[in-house]
Design a protein that fits this description.
The complex is a heterodimer.
Chain A: E1 5-7, H1 13-16, H2 20-29, H3 33-55, H4 58-74, E2 79-81, H5 85-107, H6 125-133, H7 143-155, H8 159-169, H9 175-182, H10 186-212
Helix pairs in contact in A: 2-3, 3-4, 3-5, 4-5, 5-9, 6-7, 6-10, 8-10, 9-10
Chain B: H1 9-19, H2 25-37, H3 39-53, H4 64-83, H5 89-106, H6 110-115, H7 118-124, H8 126-130, H9 132-136, H10 141-150, H11 160-163, H12 171-174, H13 177-185, H14 189-204, H15 207-221, H16 226-242, H17 245-253, H18 256-272, H19 276-293, H20 296-307, H21 311-326, H22 353-362, H23 365-373, H24 376-393, H25 409-419, H26 422-429, H27 433-447
Helix pairs in contact in B: 1-3, 2-3, 4-5, 10-16, 17-27, 19-21, 19-24, 21-24, 22-23
């Protein structure tokens, strides 16, 4: 008891106060329930989006998002600003999602597509095409099909690559913030994202090229 | 079969970092140099970018109010469960009350909202809600007194006619609840909706801020100069309403003292500024005077060229011609040149007394008054020069300075108000002022790539 949850490094404390969401969180700490609701409104869609692409199921993503908000609320009294609120929130989300994926893997409920080896070979083009749109021949991709192919491509990435990609792409987070949220170094994030993007390119590019030239 | 990458992993990392904006200036320069000389690298960069762009196709979740409510209920329930084990009989009762309160609070004040008629609350706080921006931007009654004393929102200000504001003065304060209700009910639908939006914003404020605003309003209501202060509040509110959202946010971010100085400065700038109609009159007058000074062939060419332009382009062209005509040593008729070439000749200004009189006749009463109030020839010339700067060389805006850029204030303002959705605007307004401007500019550049 008494140990305050530090949302980032102490050197960033002053800077963090410039973040309006940090200021809202400080109001939550001071017992302002409306501020908590406002924070939820600001982040719920963003959080569920990232979690859904991370765990692959909408319902589960919503459950996990609720768990994240619960942890935020429970930690309110010991909250100390140290970095951007979003970085802190996605740090919690990363932990919650990792726990969930671990237990799901143990229970063998579903075949988790993630893989601990970041450099493994991605699924082949044909596997992806089939996964996304059935056994259709190559042709011009319609919007829904393209979305499914992109989703399937994302699912071939490891969990870590996927989360880094989602935070970079959807949350526009810097490497330093992603590193803080994922408890890694910025240098490691740089390599991780480069490998992830290369994997995505390898998977998506040939498929798109064939789709562009229907037979 | 997948294509293998054709470049080294380190270079790929650098390219990805370049695409993500993570390189320093030196790193960016190196990559750009490489891109200009190595086609292999250029192609790799394009391939990485195009597949990355495909991720935009992924769906984004939209969970809505139901999710919010169920989450706050879950959080409240969890608070209850945490309280339960340690609770004695008495303590448990306290815990239940605490939980009931927590549920009420966390459920977006649902219970509170049901227990009190929102209309009653609106009517009670009506004087604040109607002037929400003004009160939010007022730290204390002393601030209003200073505005009053400086006369920046005084009725006799030369801008008063332009403001065309129907001041409520103390009306909304003195009216009984029933009268307030009747007044609100009589409003047109759009104004009711606007009032409701303000009320919602007021209700979402932290309770400490709501308390502060009520205290402030009560202090104004009981002040000896209440009528005069309410008039200032009315006009201040009206003026704030005319500002773009980010301009209001910028004012809000200033310290109290700096805000007061800024408001005074902006109002003083507006006092000197021409109305929109007078700007048009002034631009036409300058164009006419410039054409009169040209040789016939030159005049005919300019008239033909300018008549094909849009209004803004035409103003730009006239501005350029004006700059040339008033530049030392340029556009001066050969006959007027002094033989001493070392001495740079200043062109004779065309806003001589007769031309100024001609301008005065065309301006609105307020514009004419401004010109006449400029005491003496130098003052009038200075005023005309400042109008020329405003009409031809200032790209819109009220003088709130942005960093140098090819996007002007006016364009950013339009982009903010017309192209961003409510959520994006709300996000921007929630940012600190300088961050908001940087973000707005980035969004603009993203939406309007060169």
């Amino acid at each position: 008891m008494g140990n305050r949850v530090r949302a980032g490094g102490s050197s960033a404390e002053l800077n963090a106060l410039g973040d309006p969401d940090v200021r809202l969180m400080l109001q939550v700490r001071d017992g302002n329930a409306a501020a908590f609701e406002e924070l939820m409104r600001r982040y719920q869609n963003r959080l569920v989006t990232v979690l859904e692409h991370l765990v692959g199921k909408r319902g589960q993503a919503e459950d996990l998002a609720q768990e994240v908000f619960l942890r935020v609320y429970r930690a309110r009294e010991s909250y100390v600003p140290g970095s951007k609120f979003s970085t802190w929130l996605f740090t919690i989300a990363n932990n919650v999602a990792a726990n969930s994926l671990r237990s799901r893997s143990r229970r063998r409920e579903v075949q988790v597509t993630s893989n601990d080896d970041d450099d493994r070979e991605p699924a082949t083009l044909d596997q992806l095409a089939q996964a996304a749109s059935g056994l259709m021949p190559t042709r011009q991709l319609d919007k829904a099909e393209l979305r499914d192919v992109v989703r399937a491509a994302l699912e071939t990435l490891s969990e870590r690559q996927r989360l880094a990609v989602l935070l970079c792409k959807f949350e526009d987070m810097s490497y330093a913030d992603i590193a803080a949220a994922m408890d890694m170094s910025p240098k490691a994030i740089k390599s991780l994202l480069a490998r992830a993007r290369d994997n995505l390119r390898e998977i998506l590019e040939p498929y798109l090229q064939r789709g562009d030239r229907p037979t | 079969m997948s294509e293998k990458a054709s470049i080294e992993p380190e270079l790929r990392e650098t390219l990805v970092a370049y695409l993500d904006g993570e390189l320093d200036a030196e790193g960016e320069r190196r990559v750009e140099q490489l891109l200009s000389t190595d086609e292999r690298v250029r192609i790799e960069l394009q391939r990485l970018q195009s597949t990355w762009d495909l991720l935009d196709r992924l769906p984004r979740a939209a969970v809505g109010a139901e999710f919010t409510h169920s989450t706050v209920e879950m959080v409240a329930l969890s608070v209850e469960q945490e309280a339960r084990p340690a609770a004695s009989r008495f303590g448990r009762r306290v815990a239940i009350i605490a939980v009931a309160l927590a549920v009420a609070c966390l459920s977006g004040f649902i219970a509170v909202r049901l227990s009190l008629d929102p209309n009653q609350r609106l009517l009670g706080d009506l004087p604040i809600v109607e002037h929400l921006e003004a009160y939010r931007q007022t730290p204390d009654i002393g601030f209003l007194r200073q505005l009053d004393k400086a006369g920046v929102f005084a009725e006799e200000s030369s801008l008063a006619a332009q403001d065309t504001i129907e001041t409520n003065g103390m009306d909304s304060v003195l009216r009984s609840r029933e009268q307030r209700r009747a007044a609100v009910e009589a409003l047109p639908v759009e104004q009711k909706q606007e009032l409701l939006r303000k009320f919602e914003r007021f209700e979402k404020l932290p309770s400490a801020e709501r308390h502060r605003l009520r205290q402030l309003e009560a202090a104004v209501a009981t002040d000896l100069q209440a009528a005069s202060l309410y008039s200032v509040v009315d006009r201040y509110q009206h003026w704030l309403d005319q500002l773009a959202g980010f301009e209001r946010a910028e004012l809000m971010a200033l310290s109290d003292e700096a805000r007061l100085a800024r408001v005074k400065q902006l109002r003083a700038d507006e006092e000197r500024r021409l109305s929109h109609d007078d700007q048009t009159v002034f631009a036409e007058w300058v164009e006419q005077k410039l054409l009169e000074r040209m040789r016939p062939a030159q005049r005919e060419q300019a008239q033909r060229l300018w008549s094909g332009f849009s209004e803004s382009r035409r103003r730009q062209a006239v501005g350029q011609a004006l700059r040339l005509a008033t530049q030392p040593g340029r556009a001066r008729p050969a006959a007027d040149r002094t033989p001493d070439l070392k001495k740079k000749a200043r062109p004779k200004p065309f806003w001589n007394p007769a031309a100024r009189e001609e301008l005065a006749q065309r301006l609105s009463p307020r514009g004419r008054q401004q010109l006449e109030e400029a005491d003496g020839d130098p003052a009038q010339r200075k005023l005309i020069q400042s109008w020329a700067r405003e009409v031809f060389y200032t790209p819109g805006g009220r003088g709130l300075k942005l960093p140098a850029s090819d996007v002007d204030d006016q364009r950013l303002k339009e982009f903010f108000e017309q192209e961003l959705d409510a959520a994006e605007r709300a996000h921007l307004l929630g940012l600190p002022s300088d961050q908001m401007r940087r973000q707005l500019r980035r969004l603009y550049q993203r939406a309007h790539p060169r």
